[in-house]
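TOKENISED FOLD:
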Amino acid sequence: MIQIIQLKEVLRNKRFLLFTVFIPIVWYVMMTLTAKSGHFFTDTYGYIWFMASCLMGVAGNSIVTFSKRMNNGRRYYVLQSKISHYTLWRFGLDQLVVQIILNAMICLVVVICGIVLQTLLIDTHLLLAILLVTTLGIYFSIIGFSLGLLLSGPVLDAIGFPIMIVIAILIVPFSTIAHDGFVQIISTIQMIFPGYHLYRILLNLISGVSIQKPILYFFVSMIGTSLPFIWLTWLRVIKKTNALTV
């Protein structure tokens, strides 16, 4: 019941519609139409741009929108953790279910767009791409959960758009369209984060190359870059809340 109410509230949120639906679809349409007009569109590009578009939407939902929602309800759930057994961790897990549903909906919207533009086919590669993006959505939601508890509302409002720009830089596979020195620097930084390895998994799968190493790097980078956020959240918020409760 709580999840249904949360879903209704999010779907009415203009921030959600702008950052997680409108911008990714516009980017996807522009990239695919440009590729088609230039006669360099391939199925591989179709999968890559599909994943990039979904990741923009999922990241916007899981970090920008979710962090703001967490921040708005922070006082209430801190109070609940003090007077009941409903801890902040429990609240975060409940919200994670909502996030998974929303992220799956975002992927579905982009899939429909791709089918209309005749740039996507429903096959095992596409289903794997959706599964990987949804998995990465859990990672983004952990970051959004932490930012919502650690930062104030005005700060989250101020950094919302810059965060989306940074996320786009970290997840868009620039190496597929350029190979100059600056792009190589960006690609090296991207390797620290799981989005880079997400594309490696899909490209290796399409090419018939082993995906064992990129999958390992994917999960290692996802765990390694999320642990600092989890630690800060526990140290600065949850530990203090538990101490006050005791």
Remarks:
- The longest helix spans residues 212-245.
- The mean pLDDT is 81.
